[in-house]
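Q: A reviewer asked whether we had any structural model of the full assembly, not just the individual parts. We don't, so I'm hoping you can provide one. Inputs are below.
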Amino acid sequence: MKYCSNCAAEVELKIPEGDNRPRYVCPQCGMIHYENPRMVVGCIPVWEEKILICRRAIEPRHGLWTVPAGFMENGETLEQGAMRETEEEAGARVRIERLHAVYSLPQVNQVYVIFLAPMLDGRFEAGLESLECKLVTPAEIPWDEIAFTAIRFSLETYVRSLKTGATCAYTGFLDKNW
Amino acid sequence: MKYCSNCAAEVELKIPEGDNRPRYVCPQCGMIHYENPRMVVGCIPVWEEKILICRRAIEPRHGLWTVPAGFMENGETLEQGAMRETEEEAGARVRIERLHAVYSLPQVNQVYVIFLAPMLDGRFEAGLESLECKLVTPAEIPWDEIAFTAIRFSLETYVRSLKTGATCAYTGFLDKNW
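A: Here is a predicted structure for the entire assembly that you could use as a starting point for your response.
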């Protein structure tokens, strides 16, 4: 951020009065431009005990595998965002069964929120951001080619939950020293 | 948003190529300014079966009661943010026991993430944003003076969980037609 989005003056990085961390502040109109983490919402879509995964057609991690997930948009709930991403990236319709995983990535200012979501039917189709989509058994998950740490966490905990019968959401975070 | 934060040109509201919703786009440098929901992170701090609540010293909802919660900052995990807010608003130190509630407010582009958090000791002190803080039993919760819908949801489900023994996180959202 270089300029104030409200009045176009050059912003300064400084700690506002009564605050305790640096913000972009406009010296002309006084607006404080807060920056906050963003949410990535998605689903583990399941059909007949298989998981729907997508191979990424875009950077970062082009060619690697993920579950459908993307940035939450204004005006939607977490659940609506997760269903939208599943439709956009994998052409699949799902119902939200439960919250499965919440994972913080403080290094990149992101929080993943992943739902467990049975597919309404067995149909799917790669969207513009996917090279291909396919249904895999837990044993067929390509562990060496998973795109993101938070997706790996979501899939690992899902496979574990199948064995233990656990149904509570898993929480995790990428350690800063990792 | 009126001006590009990257080059100070006047932005336009339009649907970028390959996108499906209007964004603020800079006609000069081409930057797309995405806007996304923000997270409010907090705790239900518990000491000897009592809940620590805070009476707000700031708008909105000045004078009404809440649990310690505030906007998640860049560079922190959900858990770190919840503990920071509890320290700032109520002067209390806690450990995170588990995720308790996740609640979407699409009308205001917010998602609340509330943890259950035993206090490390019985000490607390109202921070700058609180008029007072106090420990209350579930029966003493001032239901008619709760500041926010998501906090009400968190407290109602917490009281219910005490009766049922449930330990999974609750999810909810404010219905758009509510």
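A: Points you may want to mention in the reply: Chain B has two domains: 1-35, 38-173. The radius of gyration of chain B is 19 Å.
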